[in-house]
Design a protein that fits this description.
Elements (H helix, E strand, L loop, with lengths): L2 E4 L6 E4 L37 E4 L8 E7 L14 E3 L2 E3 L5 E6 L13 H18 L7 E8 L11 E7 L4 H17 L3 H12 L3 E4 L3 E4 L10 E5 L11 H22 L4 E6 L14 E6 L6 H6 L2 E3 L3 H9 L6
Helix pairs in contact: 1-4
C-alpha cells in the first residue's frame, strides 16, 4: 500500500507510491551526449570570463595553472553594485537587485565528474565555497548565499564544463525560512536539534543509510520528494558551512565521492541538482540549525499535482533506493 510520509523539519507530506513503484533499475538513464563546441570555462579561455575573484592553484599535475576558479557570472541574476533602495508601490514591496552571482569552475578538466575526480579535487571545490561565503558575509547588505549545482541539460545546466554557482541575496528565501522555522519549533519542543536527531535515528536504523565516515553521513531521507534524493550532513552540530573545520571538509569530499560513484554506477550518470543549506547571516540559529547538502537526481518530472498541492509523488521507497546504493560498488 502507498504511504504518506511527513518531513520532520518542515512538515511537508510526500506520497511514497508503491502502487506505481519503480525498481531502481527502471530509473537508469542513458548518459547525455557531449554537446561539443567552444567552452569558455576551459584552460586557455580565461579571457572569455570576467576576472576571477578567487582561485586555487593546480599543485597536483605539476604543470601549473589553476585547479579551481571563481568568477562573476557573465549574465548575473543580481549585481554587487548599488544600494538596496527599499520602497513600496501601494501594497507591493520592491528593492534593487543587489547581490552577487558567481560561477565556481570546479576543475580544469572539461570531462571530469564528481565520480572521476579524486577526493582532494572535491575538497578544493568545497574550500572555494567556504572562501566565497566568508568573503561575501562581510557585505552587510547580504543575508543569505545559495550555493547550488546544475549538472546536465535536464537539470538546468547551460554549460557542460563542471561548475557550480552561488547567488548572494539581500533577503532570506522562503524555503530557507521554512526549514529554520521548523527546526526552531522542534528545538522549542524537544530542546534538541532536529538534524542531530535525524542523524541519530538514521544511523541506528540503518535502512536508509548510504555511506558514512568519522565526520559525515549520507542517507536517503525518510520522506524524500524524489527517487534517490540523498542528504549529506556532518555528524557534529555545525550551523554555518563557512565555519566547518578542514578535517570535516575532507570527510565531506570523501562521502561525496562515494555517493556520486554509487549514483552514477546505479543510474547511468543522471542529471542532478545539489543545494547547500547553510545558516543565514546575522541570524542566531546556532542552537537548532545544522548545515546539510541535498542531492537530487533528475529521474522524474514535477507536474500539475505537485505544483498545485505541494505534495510530491515518489515511486521509489527510500529504503529500497538506499539498499540499491549500498549494494553498488563505489569504485574503491
Amino acid at each position: 500500500m502507498s504511504e504518506l510520509r511527513k518531513d520532520p523539519v518542515i512538515g511537508r507530506w510526500v506520497i511514497i507510491s508503491t502502487e506505481r513503484a519503480k525498481r531502481p533499475s527502471d530509473l537508469k538513464l542513458e548518459p547525455e551526449r557531449p554537446r561539443g563546441g567552444f567552452c569558455p570555462l576551459c584552460p586557455g579561455n580565461e579571457d572569455k570570463t570576467p576576472p576571477e575573484v578567487f582561485s586555487i592553484p593546480d599543485e597536483r599535475s605539476g604543470r601549473g595553472g589553476w585547479a579551481v576558479r571563481v568568477v562573476p557570472n557573465k549574465f548575473p541574476a543580481l549585481l554587487i553594485e548599488g544600494s538596496l533602495h527599499k520602497r513600496s508601490e501601494g501594497m507591493y514591496d520592491i528593492m534593487n537587485g543587489v547581490g552577487a552571482h558567481e560561477v565556481i569552475i570546479e576543475t580544469s578538466d572539461h570531462a571530469a565528474t564528481y565520480s572521476s575526480m579524486p577526493a582532494a579535487a572535491i575538497t578544493n571545490i568545497l574550500l572555494a565555497f567556504k572562501n566565497r561565503l566568508m568573503e561575501l558575509k562581510k557585505d552587510s547588505r547580504l543575508r543569505y548565499i545559495a550555493v547550488f549545482k546544475n549538472c546536465g541539460e535536464a537539470a538546468g545546466a547551460t554549460l557542460e564544463h563542471p561548475h557550480s554557482q552561488l547567488i548572494a541575496l539581500p533577503v532570506i528565501p522562503r524555503r530557507v525560512l521554512e526549514k529554520i522555522d521548523g527546526a526552531q519549533a522542534y528545538f522549542n519542543y524537544k530542546r534538541q536539534c532536529v538534524f542531530c536527531d535525524i542523524i541519530g535515528q538514521e544511523t541506528a536504523d540503518g535502512r536508509r543509510m548510504v555511506a558514512g565516515n568519522e565526520h559525515c553521513v549520507a542517507f536517503e531521507p525518510f520522506a524524500p520528494r524524489f527517487p534517490f534524493e540523498t542528504h549529506i550532513l556532518p555528524r557534529a552540530h555545525l550551523e554555518a558551512f563557512e565555519d566547518t573545520p578542514d578535517d570535516v571538509m575532507r570527510a565531506l569530499a570523501d562521502i561525496m565521492s562515494v555517493v556520486f560513484k554509487k549514483l552514477n554506477a546505479s543510474l547511468g550518470f543522471p542529471p542532478f541538482n545539489f543545494m547547500l543549506h547553510t545558516a543565514p547571516f546575522n541570524k542566531d540559529v546556532g542552537a537548532f540549525y545544522h548545515w546539510h547538502l541535498e542531492i537530487i537526481p533528475r529521474l522524474t518530472k514535477v507536474a500539475g499535482f505537485e505544483w498545485g498541492s505541494g505534495f510530491y509523488i515518489n515511486p521509489t521507497p527510500p529504503e529500497q533506493a538506499a539498499q540499491y546504493l549500498r549494494d553498488t560498488a563505489d569504485g574503491r
